[in-house]
Fold:
Amino acid sequence: MAMNKVMASALEACRDIKSGQTVLAGGFGLCGIPEHCIAALRELGPTALTVVSNNCGVDDFGLGILLRNRQIAKMISSYVGENKEFERQYLSGELEVELCPQGTLAERLRAGGAGIPAFYTPTGAGTVVSDGGMPLKYGDGGKVAKASEKKETRDFHGRSYVLEPAITGDFAIVKAWKADRFGNLVYRHTAMNFNPMMATAGSITIAEVEEIVEVGELDPDHIHTPGIFVQRVVKGQRYEKRIERRTTRKS
Structure:
Protein backbone atom coordinates (compact mmCIF):
# COMPACT_ATOMS: atom_id res chain seq x y z
CA MET A 1 0.00 0.00 0.00
CA ALA A 2 1.36 3.42 -0.97
CA MET A 3 2.24 5.45 2.10
CA ASN A 4 1.91 8.76 0.28
CA LYS A 5 -1.84 8.79 -0.38
CA VAL A 6 -2.11 12.39 -1.56
CA MET A 7 -3.62 12.78 -5.03
CA ALA A 8 -3.55 15.81 -7.28
CA SER A 9 -7.29 16.45 -7.46
CA ALA A 10 -10.74 15.19 -6.57
CA LEU A 11 -11.22 14.29 -10.24
CA GLU A 12 -8.19 12.00 -10.13
CA ALA A 13 -9.25 10.48 -6.82
CA CYS A 14 -12.83 9.76 -7.96
CA ARG A 15 -12.09 8.76 -11.54
CA ASP A 16 -12.63 5.01 -11.04
CA ILE A 17 -16.03 5.31 -9.34
CA LYS A 18 -18.20 3.42 -11.82
CA SER A 19 -21.89 3.45 -12.68
CA GLY A 20 -23.98 1.16 -10.49
CA GLN A 21 -21.63 1.26 -7.51
CA THR A 22 -22.44 2.16 -3.91
CA VAL A 23 -20.98 5.41 -2.57
CA LEU A 24 -21.03 6.40 1.11
CA ALA A 25 -21.01 10.18 1.55
CA GLY A 26 -20.19 11.88 4.83
CA GLY A 27 -21.86 15.00 6.17
CA PHE A 28 -24.94 16.11 8.07
CA GLY A 29 -27.09 18.57 6.19
CA LEU A 30 -24.42 20.61 4.43
CA CYS A 31 -21.99 20.42 7.35
CA GLY A 32 -18.88 18.35 6.69
CA ILE A 33 -19.83 17.27 3.18
CA PRO A 34 -17.13 16.35 0.62
CA GLU A 35 -17.96 19.26 -1.70
CA HIS A 36 -15.17 18.70 -4.20
CA CYS A 37 -15.64 14.94 -4.52
CA ILE A 38 -19.35 15.47 -5.19
CA ALA A 39 -18.52 18.07 -7.85
CA ALA A 40 -16.00 15.65 -9.37
CA LEU A 41 -18.64 12.92 -9.58
CA ARG A 42 -20.96 15.30 -11.38
CA GLU A 43 -18.23 16.02 -13.92
CA LEU A 44 -17.19 12.38 -14.30
CA GLY A 45 -20.79 11.32 -14.78
CA PRO A 46 -21.26 7.81 -13.30
CA THR A 47 -24.95 6.90 -13.16
CA ALA A 48 -27.26 4.44 -11.37
CA LEU A 49 -25.41 5.08 -8.12
CA THR A 50 -26.63 3.89 -4.74
CA VAL A 51 -25.71 6.66 -2.32
CA VAL A 52 -25.73 6.29 1.45
CA SER A 53 -25.85 9.57 3.34
CA ASN A 54 -27.80 11.11 6.19
CA ASN A 55 -29.53 13.35 3.65
CA CYS A 56 -29.22 14.39 0.01
CA GLY A 57 -28.06 17.98 0.24
CA VAL A 58 -30.27 20.73 -1.15
CA ASP A 59 -31.56 21.28 -4.67
CA ASP A 60 -28.47 23.07 -5.98
CA PHE A 61 -25.69 21.98 -3.65
CA GLY A 62 -24.18 18.88 -2.10
CA LEU A 63 -25.55 15.53 -3.23
CA GLY A 64 -28.52 17.41 -4.66
CA ILE A 65 -26.48 18.22 -7.77
CA LEU A 66 -25.99 14.51 -8.48
CA LEU A 67 -29.68 13.90 -7.93
CA ARG A 68 -30.64 16.69 -10.33
CA ASN A 69 -28.19 15.24 -12.86
CA ARG A 70 -30.00 11.86 -12.66
CA GLN A 71 -26.88 10.07 -11.39
CA ILE A 72 -28.47 8.57 -8.26
CA ALA A 73 -30.80 5.58 -8.59
CA LYS A 74 -31.19 4.79 -4.90
CA MET A 75 -30.71 6.70 -1.65
CA ILE A 76 -30.32 5.20 1.80
CA SER A 77 -30.96 8.14 4.09
CA SER A 78 -32.39 9.36 7.34
CA TYR A 79 -33.61 12.90 6.60
CA VAL A 80 -34.58 14.26 3.19
CA GLY A 81 -36.77 17.28 3.92
CA GLU A 82 -34.56 20.00 2.45
CA ASN A 83 -34.64 18.84 -1.15
CA LYS A 84 -37.73 19.39 -3.34
CA GLU A 85 -36.19 17.55 -6.29
CA PHE A 86 -35.67 14.53 -4.03
CA GLU A 87 -39.37 14.59 -3.15
CA ARG A 88 -40.38 14.92 -6.80
CA GLN A 89 -38.18 12.04 -8.00
CA TYR A 90 -39.28 9.77 -5.15
CA LEU A 91 -43.01 10.36 -5.60
CA SER A 92 -42.76 10.08 -9.39
CA GLY A 93 -40.99 6.71 -9.20
CA GLU A 94 -37.65 7.95 -10.55
CA LEU A 95 -35.78 7.34 -7.29
CA GLU A 96 -35.71 4.41 -4.88
CA VAL A 97 -35.48 5.52 -1.25
CA GLU A 98 -34.70 3.46 1.83
CA LEU A 99 -35.43 5.59 4.89
CA CYS A 100 -33.58 4.57 8.05
CA PRO A 101 -33.69 6.00 11.58
CA GLN A 102 -30.69 8.28 12.05
CA GLY A 103 -29.02 6.42 14.91
CA THR A 104 -29.64 3.10 13.18
CA LEU A 105 -28.05 4.44 9.99
CA ALA A 106 -24.95 5.49 11.94
CA GLU A 107 -24.71 2.10 13.62
CA ARG A 108 -25.25 0.19 10.36
CA LEU A 109 -22.26 2.03 8.94
CA ARG A 110 -20.16 1.54 12.07
CA ALA A 111 -21.00 -2.17 12.04
CA GLY A 112 -20.02 -2.40 8.38
CA GLY A 113 -16.65 -0.88 9.12
CA ALA A 114 -16.15 -3.21 12.08
CA GLY A 115 -16.99 -6.35 10.13
CA ILE A 116 -20.24 -6.98 12.03
CA PRO A 117 -22.88 -8.26 9.57
CA ALA A 118 -25.97 -7.21 11.55
CA PHE A 119 -27.16 -6.14 15.00
CA TYR A 120 -30.34 -5.88 17.05
CA THR A 121 -31.81 -2.51 18.00
CA PRO A 122 -35.10 -1.51 19.66
CA THR A 123 -35.43 1.48 17.33
CA GLY A 124 -38.23 0.86 14.84
CA ALA A 125 -39.45 -2.37 16.40
CA GLY A 126 -43.21 -2.69 15.98
CA THR A 127 -43.35 -0.09 13.20
CA VAL A 128 -43.11 -0.24 9.41
CA VAL A 129 -39.32 -0.27 9.92
CA SER A 130 -39.57 -3.83 11.24
CA ASP A 131 -42.95 -4.94 9.92
CA GLY A 132 -42.33 -3.98 6.30
CA GLY A 133 -44.54 -2.20 3.83
CA MET A 134 -42.63 1.08 3.71
CA PRO A 135 -42.70 2.45 0.13
CA LEU A 136 -39.24 2.13 -1.42
CA LYS A 137 -40.28 3.07 -4.94
CA TYR A 138 -43.46 4.32 -6.55
CA GLY A 139 -44.87 3.35 -9.91
CA ASP A 140 -47.58 4.60 -12.23
CA GLY A 141 -50.46 6.49 -10.68
CA GLY A 142 -48.71 6.85 -7.34
CA LYS A 143 -48.99 3.14 -6.58
CA VAL A 144 -46.25 1.49 -4.55
CA ALA A 145 -44.07 -0.52 -6.94
CA LYS A 146 -41.63 -1.76 -4.32
CA ALA A 147 -42.03 -1.95 -0.54
CA SER A 148 -39.69 -2.85 2.29
CA GLU A 149 -39.72 -6.43 3.52
CA LYS A 150 -40.43 -7.62 7.03
CA LYS A 151 -37.29 -7.84 9.17
CA GLU A 152 -36.35 -10.40 11.76
CA THR A 153 -37.30 -9.44 15.32
CA ARG A 154 -36.47 -10.93 18.69
CA ASP A 155 -37.33 -10.23 22.31
CA PHE A 156 -34.61 -9.57 24.86
CA HIS A 157 -35.57 -9.12 28.50
CA GLY A 158 -39.17 -8.43 27.55
CA ARG A 159 -38.41 -5.83 24.88
CA SER A 160 -38.67 -6.22 21.11
CA TYR A 161 -35.64 -5.66 18.90
CA VAL A 162 -35.26 -5.57 15.12
CA LEU A 163 -32.30 -7.04 13.24
CA GLU A 164 -30.62 -4.40 11.07
CA PRO A 165 -28.00 -5.26 8.42
CA ALA A 166 -24.66 -3.50 8.26
CA ILE A 167 -23.83 -1.12 5.40
CA THR A 168 -20.63 -1.09 3.37
CA GLY A 169 -19.80 0.62 0.10
CA ASP A 170 -17.54 0.37 -2.91
CA PHE A 171 -16.31 3.89 -2.13
CA ALA A 172 -16.61 6.35 0.73
CA ILE A 173 -16.14 10.08 0.18
CA VAL A 174 -15.56 12.03 3.39
CA LYS A 175 -14.54 15.51 4.49
CA ALA A 176 -11.93 16.12 7.19
CA TRP A 177 -10.14 19.18 8.50
CA LYS A 178 -6.54 17.94 8.47
CA ALA A 179 -4.67 14.93 7.15
CA ASP A 180 -1.11 13.78 6.75
CA ARG A 181 0.16 11.96 3.67
CA PHE A 182 -0.41 8.60 5.40
CA GLY A 183 -4.15 9.38 5.46
CA ASN A 184 -4.59 9.97 9.19
CA LEU A 185 -7.58 12.30 9.61
CA VAL A 186 -8.72 14.94 12.08
CA TYR A 187 -12.27 16.33 11.85
CA ARG A 188 -13.35 19.72 13.16
CA HIS A 189 -16.24 20.12 15.61
CA THR A 190 -19.67 19.10 14.24
CA ALA A 191 -18.21 18.42 10.77
CA MET A 192 -17.20 15.09 12.29
CA ASN A 193 -20.82 13.81 12.18
CA PHE A 194 -21.15 10.75 9.87
CA ASN A 195 -17.65 11.02 8.39
CA PRO A 196 -15.78 8.61 10.73
CA MET A 197 -18.28 5.79 10.18
CA MET A 198 -18.34 6.33 6.42
CA ALA A 199 -14.53 6.26 6.30
CA THR A 200 -14.32 2.80 7.87
CA ALA A 201 -17.16 1.27 5.82
CA GLY A 202 -15.85 2.03 2.32
CA SER A 203 -13.71 -0.45 0.40
CA ILE A 204 -11.88 2.61 -0.96
CA THR A 205 -12.08 5.78 1.11
CA ILE A 206 -11.36 9.17 -0.40
CA ALA A 207 -10.82 11.97 2.11
CA GLU A 208 -10.86 15.58 1.02
CA VAL A 209 -9.30 17.92 3.55
CA GLU A 210 -8.57 21.59 4.13
CA GLU A 211 -4.96 21.11 5.17
CA ILE A 212 -2.29 18.46 4.66
CA VAL A 213 0.53 18.36 7.22
CA GLU A 214 3.74 16.39 7.49
CA VAL A 215 3.71 12.94 9.05
CA GLY A 216 4.26 13.33 12.80
CA GLU A 217 2.62 16.75 13.07
CA LEU A 218 -0.75 15.32 14.10
CA ASP A 219 -0.99 14.41 17.78
CA PRO A 220 -1.75 10.66 17.79
CA ASP A 221 -4.31 11.25 20.55
CA HIS A 222 -6.17 13.70 18.31
CA ILE A 223 -6.46 11.48 15.22
CA HIS A 224 -10.09 10.50 14.65
CA THR A 225 -9.70 8.18 11.64
CA PRO A 226 -6.43 6.22 11.36
CA GLY A 227 -4.83 6.16 7.93
CA ILE A 228 -5.33 2.40 7.58
CA PHE A 229 -8.94 3.18 6.64
CA VAL A 230 -8.05 5.84 4.04
CA GLN A 231 -6.68 5.10 0.58
CA ARG A 232 -6.71 8.58 -1.03
CA VAL A 233 -6.32 12.15 0.23
CA VAL A 234 -7.18 15.33 -1.67
CA LYS A 235 -6.64 18.92 -0.60
CA GLY A 236 -9.69 21.04 -1.37
CA GLN A 237 -9.75 24.76 -2.14
CA ARG A 238 -12.32 27.52 -1.61
CA TYR A 239 -14.91 25.60 0.39
CA GLU A 240 -18.38 27.15 0.31
CA LYS A 241 -19.61 25.54 3.55
CA ARG A 242 -23.19 26.56 2.96
CA ILE A 243 -25.93 26.63 5.57
CA GLU A 244 -29.29 25.10 4.61
CA ARG A 245 -31.38 27.67 6.44
CA ARG A 246 -29.80 30.84 7.72
CA THR A 247 -31.75 32.12 10.71
CA THR A 248 -31.03 35.59 12.03
CA ARG A 249 -32.75 37.81 14.53
CA LYS A 250 -34.62 40.84 13.21
CA SER A 251 -32.79 44.04 13.97
